[in-house]
Amino acid sequence: MSEEPKKPKPVEPPFRISPPLAAASSPSLTRLLTDLEKASRLREELERSTYVFRAMQTPSFFTDLEKASRLREELERSANVFKAMHASTALPRSLNSVSDLAKSIGAVAGPGKLRWFDSTVFKSLEAESTTLRALEAQAAQWRSLTGNIGSVAPRLTPPASLTDQVNRSALAWRTGVSESLKFIGEIGNLRSSVELSNSLLRPSLLHGKFAEQTLSLIKEASDPKAIKALNASLKLVDAQHVANMELLTTLVPSVDDVGLGSPSWGLNAPFVQREELLSESELENDEDLGLVVALSPAAQRVEQTRLVLQLTTDCNKASRTKGGVEIFTPTTRVLETFANLPWITPRDEKSFGDFVDGLYFIAYEGAGKDKLRFLREYGGPLLKEDCDVIWSVKTLRNKWLRHDPDHGKESDIKKSWSSLEECLRRLGIQGYPRAEADYQLLHGRILTDMADFLGRLLRAI
């Protein structure tokens, strides 16, 4: 009997800038979720990594960050699972193996053990902030969860068992923390900033808080639909966290440091997504993240935001390939924006101001401010009329969100309010934004316009 010919792998459609963005972006999240499950075939490598992690308990290994980096490189060469963990391509299904690995990691990175980082940035982090203590507490919570899954697992039906979900979420959290700390170590020679380090670690702390809360809700829930929605929201946030962190760590920071942006940024997208999914009656498959994203407007905005950030790095690479300079300089504020912006879902004036701040730091301040590098008059390919969204972001920030439009001479005040009214009207809002729906509309419209702008720039470079 002849074998059936192998079907060719489907060819992905060309990358598209224009909507629907959710349809174009969601496969990447689904791939991340699928990749996380591949570790079911990597138990042998996982046990090998556990052994190496135990060897790391010797304090002399970590007399300085350079040795830690060398050890990490050796781990990546010698253990496939470690590569998979840091590339977010592994989900260990063996609970015993996960527990062993968690204990080994805890022995190294548990309370009082973080002193093996000997760089200035890590010393200052430990001395001046509570971030690492919060991470340590979350690590302990993950160890507790992996050891007490039995009482919760019956709440979920196979194959979406809570055992798998806890393992996946623990790995996503650990990947975010690990990659953040590695990135902070790499930029330590450029900036020894506790505030920046805290900002880059904030999404991991939020992920841990969200996961713990959602798993508790699953444990208490009795409605199958609610359990499915909660499970879907956690899978979605796991994949988003890994994808967001991977994008951040592709940046090569600039020596030019313009200071921090907004340390009080509020990250709320995971919780908004969960609310939306719990209110959705059409969720049939919590494994298909493409469908999950389609049912959550907030999740669609997260994908749009990541697309915008990705396009800025694409424009930089295109410019450098042509012999030019980076158009969007990765300053401190840009690093902070990459880490936090995807999980900001504007629902009021304050959160909308945080969102606009992030775009302003990247696309205006980071692009040269008074001498914007994408404009033709400063060596770029675009005319001013090609950049309406940039002027909108500038107007929203400087005439309203971060400056009082009633400040100054009467003529200046009238001009400011007139500019703001025209800007809002161009973005689809008549009058002053009042309701949450107004901010949602502005959020989506600006992201769409920014993606179109960056796509136009990328094609013109």
Characterization of the model:
- The chain contains 18 helices and no strands.
- The protein is mostly helical and 461 residues long.
- It folds into two domains: 213 residues; 115 residues, no CATH class.
- α9 runs antiparallel to α10.
- The radius of gyration is 23 Å and the shape is globular.
Cα distance spanning the termini? 56 Å
**Average pLDDT across residues?**
74
Query: Into which percent range does the helicity of residues fall?
Result: 55-70%
Rg, nearest Å? 23 Å
Give a quick account of the main beta sheet: strands, pairing sense, barrel closure: none
Quick structural gist:
Helices cover 63% and strands 0% of the residues.
Secondary structure blueprint with pairings:
Elements: H1 21-36, H2 43-55, H3 65-78, H4 80-86, H5 95-109, H6 120-128, H7 131-147, H8 162-186, H9 194-220, H10 224-248, H11 269-278, H12 289-294, H13 297-321, H14 332-340, H15 349-365, H16 388-401, H17 410-426, H18 436-460
Helix pairs in contact: 1-10, 1-13, 2-5, 3-4, 5-7, 7-8, 7-9, 8-9, 8-10, 9-10, 9-14, 10-11, 10-13, 11-13, 13-18, 14-15, 15-16, 16-17, 16-18
